Amino acid sequence: MEVIHECCCGLDVHAATVVACVIRKGRKPIRTFGTMTEDLLELRAWLENEGCTHAAIEATGVYWKPVFNVLEDAVEVMLANARHVKAVRGRKTDVRDCERLADLLRHGLLKPSFIPPPSIRALRELTRYRESLVREQTALSNRIEKLAESGNVKIGQVPSRTMGMSGREMLTKISRGETNTEALADLARGRLTEKRASLQRALEGRLTETQRWVLGELLKRYDEVEAALERVQQRLDEQIRRDPDPFVAKAPQLLEAIPGIGTSVAQTIISRWA
Asked: Which of 102, 108, 114, 186 is most buried when burial is the number of CB atoms within 10 A of its CB?
């Protein structure tokens, strides 16, 4: 079988250990490392000392990510398709797994998984965090509305948005003990002022002292999440401005490689894309 890589490494990654097998000129040294940063740097130094140019990691949850991040600049790391690797039969042990990965990589028999460049990985982290904040904010909004409804405060039936500026000010006053519906209705803004009579009726509720306290806490948490959303959006905007899209940068070469598309056509597409 044709050898594609003269010196390569298979890495079997777990939460606490990384078992590494290097194949080079018939030798197959195997070592086990921890997963602390110091241990991974030791792994990197060992691979460089062995003259290893390529390494393969099987996708295992998130455990492969720290290993990839440390080795990325030292060797060409391939994230192996887990389904493809598992299709190869044989008794499963850590040593056998890393040796098998190294052997498959050596002969070019591994199917890589796509790993985006660092700038895209950074955007993924930020957008995933933002998504979690949006979900939390939605859950808080629903919880606030249900709590108000349990005290017969029907604020969700009059404004188009319960957690709009007017609605939040009214709920904040209610959480602090305000019961005068006229005073609460005076907080209405914009087109909501046209529904003043309906608003007064909706605000005539009976919340207990405990419900008011919980309402205040939920409103505080809602404000905290909203502030966090503003911060992450600002960071996203900065990240996008600072790091140009690497895929757009490579697009001319990719388009020109398509049969039937010339350089001028490719440049025209890119100018419109960018």
From this structure: 102
